[in-house]
Amino acid sequence: MGIRRIENTKELRVAKQISNLVNDLTLDLDQVGLYLAGNHSVTYRRILEIAEAARWEKEERDKDDNFLF
Predict the structure, then answer these.
(1) pTM confidence score
(2) How far is the C-alpha of 49 from the C-alpha of 65, rounded, in Å?
(3) What contacts 29, CB < 8 A, 6 or more positions away?
């Protein structure tokens, strides 16, 4: 089994940027949410799509991690 290499795609770079931004503990996420809610509804729906995809992926990985055999 070799080392699995992840290609540095546009999506990976954006995911890293989002992760770095929200990990800033001085950032008021509630205030960010207020600003996002005031944006165009497409922006809001796309952010929800990202969150739902992340939740699904996390749940699938947790299922695989809990498999004993």
Answers:
(1) 0.72
(2) 24
(3) 22
